[in-house]
Write a structure and sequence with these properties.
The protein is of the alpha/beta class. It has two domains: 1-106, no CATH class; 109-177, no CATH class. 34% of the residues lie in helices and 9% in strands. The strands form three sheets. The protein has a three-stranded parallel β-sheet, with helices on one face. It has a two-stranded antiparallel ribbon with strand order 1-2. A two-stranded parallel ribbon has the order 5-7. Helix 3 packs across helix 4 (126-132). The longest helix is centred in the middle third of the chain and has 15 residues, at 81-95. The protein is elongated, with a radius of gyration of 19 Å. The protein binds flavin mononucleotide. Flavin mononucleotide is lined by residues 26-30, 64-65, 104.
Length: 177
């Protein structure tokens, strides 16, 4: 191997965790383990894809952003016990590669929530949003720290979270982790 690449194959540490080399797969929504923009579940195809990357020698894999509350169906990630049961043997298998996997937990999508025209229509109308909220709550998924404009839809403003909602999110971050 060309000597200039040798450093790529040396380990490094993040806190107490040793990563076997410098090759990191960045987080990309869609390459998830628990499903993407759908009710959380153990996504076998996504998990197999990530495991294969580790087998190929990627030292650290960061699956796509994982929201702690489903966008569709609105279930908390930590309440999905079955998914965690499947995750355990998967991680045992994953660790045999020597690679590491960090899950990027997120509270929601906030102002960057990519909304389609029908979602924007819901988000702008309190009554329609409330009616649809058991399935998809655009005002919740697009909520943020303050009333900032959505990145994708003109005229759609993020609803600021209430203090109670923020405390609830903090609790579920811990439970999901
Ligand atoms: C389709 C796509 C989805 C992404 N999803 C996430 C994400 O979930 N979390 C995150 O932190 N970054 C995300 N990113 C940013 C990437 O992790 C990366 O930082 C960015 O693409 C810059 O790296 P690159 O120049 O190699 O593309 C995403 C990028 C792309 C293209």
């Amino acid at each position: 191997m060309n000597q200039k690449y040798e450093a790529l194959f040396t380990p490094f540490k993040i806190g107490e965790v040793e990563i076997p080399n410098r090759i990191v797969q960045c987080s990309m929504g869609g390459t998830t383990i628990f499903g993407w923009l759908e009710p959380s579940h153990f996504d076998i195809e996504g998990a197999d894809f990530l495991l294969q990357r580790a087998k190929d020698g990627v030292g650290l894999v960061l699956p796509g952003m994982q929201v702690i509350r489903d966008t569709m169906g609105r279930k908390w990630l930590d309440s999905n016990r079955q998914m965690y049961r499947v995750l355990k043997p998967y991680m045992d298998e994953y660790h045999k590669t020597g690679g590491k996997l960090f899950i990027q937990l997120a509270g929601g999508f906030g102002r960057s929530m990519a909304v389609t025209p029908w979602m924007a229509a819901l988000g702008k109308n309190d009554l329609l949003n409330k009616l649809a909220s058991p399935i998809v709550d655009v005002q919740y998924a697009g909520a943020s720290a303050s009333a900032t404009p959505n990145r994708w839809a003109d005229g759609l403003t993020s609803r600021p979270f209430t203090v109670e909602e923020i405390l609830e999110l903090v609790w579920h971050f811990g439970a999901s982790a």
